[in-house]
Model the fold of this input.
Amino acid sequence: MTAASMNPSNPIRLGLISDTHGLLRPEVIEAFDGVQQILHAGDVGDPDILTELEAIAPVTAVWGNTDGWNLRSQLPETADLELGGVRVRVLHGHGFGRPVADAVAEANRDVGMVVFGHSHRPEVERVGAVLAVNPGSAGPVRFSLPVTVAIAEIGAGASVTARLVKLVRREG
Done:
């Protein structure tokens, strides 16, 4: 983070991604233009994905249930960060079965934002003081769900917001 990004009057812009399963779409690079940090919630699939994301911004990533031992030996199962005065937790969510935002938020009430994946279902939900964000799946299309990432902002007074970004494949 640069000194300017740590200034409380400047919001911190985060790129949230999960379930790439070895595919980094060019649309992700476009969607993450200007982010200061990227949080990857697991099922990376190929370590080169993290290297490509690092070219955009610093990356904090966790392993997911489909990641092999090479990634599991390099990445934690859960990562906790402090960004702009907000405690942020990143986890994959496989421990929840088919995770949904309210259950993940309830289990992580000690943070301001929890980022998770696993279900491939994009959702942003505030439960009490916790913003739970599943950026959805940015990799191969699965389960007829949209291909998405999310952008979060941490602003003045440790306010946290997030929005989903649908990735549309360009034709031609």
About this structure: The helical segments are 3-6, 26-31, 47-54, 69-72, 101-107.
